[in-house]
Amino acid sequence: MPSYTFHCNECGEFTLFFKSSTGNRSIAECPICQLESNRVFFPPNLFSYSKELRTRIEKGMEPRRMTREELGSKPKRKQQPSGRPWQV
């Protein structure tokens, strides 16, 4: 069950749990003062990613340009003998 964080102007932040089938929740009622509260949106959780991936995401995920020499040569594939010579 996903948790959603809301901000009440009177009471502060609180967290509610909703079933995912209830749809998009952007406004909820504060459980203390019953005023309408807006949802707080957080950035995605990036702390579990490697440092290299985090820096690529922060840079806008620009692809790195490489030359043929940096890529190296392709390994040659072995021809596997076919057990069915009538099939190509």
Broad shape: elongated
Order of helices and strands: EEEEHH
Global structural class: alpha+beta
Please compute the radius of gyration using only Cα atoms.
Answer: 27 Å
Strand content: 15-25%
Task: Give a verbal description of the structure.
By secondary structure, this protein is an alpha+beta fold. The chain has a domain at 3-58. It is built from 2 helices and 4 strands; from the N terminus they run ββββαα. A 4-stranded antiparallel β-sheet has the order 2-1-4-3, with no helix packed on it. A hairpin with a 6-residue loop joins β3 and β4 (36-39). The chain is elongated.
Task: Write a concise synopsis of the structure shown.
The chain has 88 residues and is α+β, with helices and mostly antiparallel strands.
Which tags fit this structure?
88 residues, alpha+beta, 2 helices, 4 strands
Describe how the helices and strands are arranged.
Layout (H helix, E strand, L loop, with lengths): L2 E6 L3 E6 L9 E3 L6 E4 L11 H8 L9 H4 L17
